[in-house]
Specification:
Number of domains: 2
Low-confidence stretches: 1-6
Strand content: 15-25%
Distance between the termini: 130 Å
Mean pLDDT: 88
Structural class: alpha+beta
């Protein structure tokens, strides 16, 4: 039978083969970043901030003020000691003020010069720098660490990594211990630890913060900045085109390309960028600043430092990567023009509000009465008629001595004719203590109509300036 005589009805079409399924991952595998060491002015400033913040953090709990720790947030007795200042839970307004100051400071610094906090003072950045320093000292610089991680396990590799993790864990534990020392007297906690008598909750929080430091600074590093920190996500709302940020001068640097030191870039039709990729290698978050501003950039300036070093070596002017603004790069502004635009109305408004709140808080603290008094009618004792037909109400006055010396206070009452205090009118309160004083107040018969009447208790310090007037009510029962 000839091929063209085949009955078309008997031809069975062959089904097309189904394509093989392909798995597409929506998440890129994490690549470990090996930051290269760098020298320069911005690196020096970062290490200055590391030293300043850590000297304050680790040293402050050991500083004494009088007979106590200078800075102590003692939650067990609900008192905050800040050098000569003693704050109670009733002073919550000052904590609110400090939080507002912190928030406005963040807004101001971000509007002024981007992520200054992230690049120079954030605990995540500071402890990552410290942990990286330990790593570099024990395992070498970037290339040595990469070769060692790619190679097989050896006695040397195991020894170096074991030593590194031992130092990391010891440093992290000491960090957690110091942090808890701001809430528990440091010297008492140190004695309890050395004697094996550290309380369970204290041990838990020391371990918790130590483990967090070890994990965040030793392993997660840039992942915290890129994926966990909310500041990286909303920073763009506080940026504008006059904000100082780390920028790459694409007009001067492009087209990039390698060349010899003696070559003339204009003849090769090349920009100033020699495409050495050192700016990527020194970046703690692993970005390429030449791709423009990215949310991962923490504004540390490491890329600017290394780029200036390269420019010096090839004989080109510095500043290919630098702190500048979008408008300055676009309009080729001078430094004076940049400064004038940086201090724009938005920054001045933030500064004015911040300065006003800071001054208000310091003035309030300066004129603050060094004691507090709360008056509560004793609900366990009803208004009653006592001898000579007098009406008696019982109150409890809590007097809180916010000074660090024993104080005497005099209590008086007024508001109704003939109203008299029948209890002891003078009370002595030990330093930084609160005492609840029961007070009996009597009113002569017929001096007031039955019902509720407003009265005032006056508490006056006899040993230091201060006078408080607290309002309460006096109940006259119906006969």
């Amino acid at each position: 039978m000839k091929p063209d005589s085949i009955d078309a009805k008997k031809v069975i079409p062959i089904a097309a083969a189904e394509p093989e399924e392909e798995l597409i991952s929506l998440y890129a595998a994490h690549q470990k970043i090996y930051p290269r060491s760098v020298k320069g002015v911005f690196n020096n400033w970062r290490w200055i901030m590391v030293w300043v913040t850590q000297i304050i953090f680790y040293g402050l709990p050991w500083v004494e003020w009088g007979q106590r720790q200078a800075v102590l947030f003692d939650l067990s007795v609900r008192r905050f000691y800040i050098f000569g200042l003693v704050l109670y839970p009733q002073d919550f307004i000052y904590l609110t003020g400090m939080l507002i100051i912190a928030a406005l400071s963040l807004f101001l610094f971000t509007a002024l010069a981007g992520r200054l906090w992230c690049g120079y003072a954030c605990p995540q950045t500071v402890y990552t720098e410290i942990f990286l320093w330990f790593e570099m000292k024990l395992e070498g610089d970037r290339s040595a660490r990469m070769r060692r991680d790619e190679g097989p396990m050896s006695a040397e590799k195991f020894g170096r990594k074991a030593a590194k993790h031992f130092i990391w864990i010891a440093f992290a534990f000491w960090t957690g211990f110091t942090f808890v020392g701001y809430f528990v007297p440091m010297r008492d906690m140190a004695d309890a630890f050395l004697g094996g008598k550290l309380a369970a909750w204290e041990f838990f929080w020391v371990f918790f913060y130590g483990f967090a430091t070890y994990g965040n600074a030793g392993f997660m590093r840039e992942q915290v900045c890129k994926h966990m920190c909310p500041y990286a996500r909303f920073q763009s709302a506080m940026f504008d085109k006059d904000t100082l940020i780390v920028t790459y001068d694409a007009e001067r640097g492009e087209p990039r390309g390698a060349r010899s030191k003696k070559a003339d870039p204009t003849k090769l039709n090349l920009g100033a960028c020699v495409d050495c990729n050192l700016c990527v290698q020194v970046c703690p978050t692993g970005i390429d600043i030449r791709n423009g501003l990215q949310y991962e950039c923490i504004g540390c300036g490491a890329c600017a430092d290394v780029c200036d070093t390269v420019m010096d070596k090839v004989g080109y002017p510095r500043g290919l990567v630098k702190y500048s603004t979008e408008n300055a790069m676009l309009n080729h502004w001078t430094k004076n023009q940049i400064v004038r635009h940086v201090f724009r109305p938005r920054v001045l408004v933030y500064t004015s509000i911040l300065a006003t709140i800071v001054i208000a808080i310091f003035v309030t603290l300066a004129v603050r009465t060094p004691f507090k008094a709360d008056v509560v009618r004793d609900r366990g004792v009803m208004a009653r008629v006592v001898e000579a037909g007098k009406t008696e109400n019982v109150y409890r006055i809590q007097v809180m001595n916010a000074t660090e010396s024993d104080q005497r206070y005099k209590i008086s009452v007024n508001g109704l004719p003939g109203l008299a205090l029948m209890s002891e009118d003078t009370v002595k309160i030990p330093s930084t203590e609160a005492v609840q004083v029961p007070v009996r107040v009597q009113l002569p018969f017929g001096a007031a109509e039955p019902g509720s009447h407003e009265i005032h208790f006056v508490v006056e310090s006899l040993d230091s300036p201060g006078r408080l007037n607290e309002k309460s009510t006096f109940i006259v029962p119906r006969q």
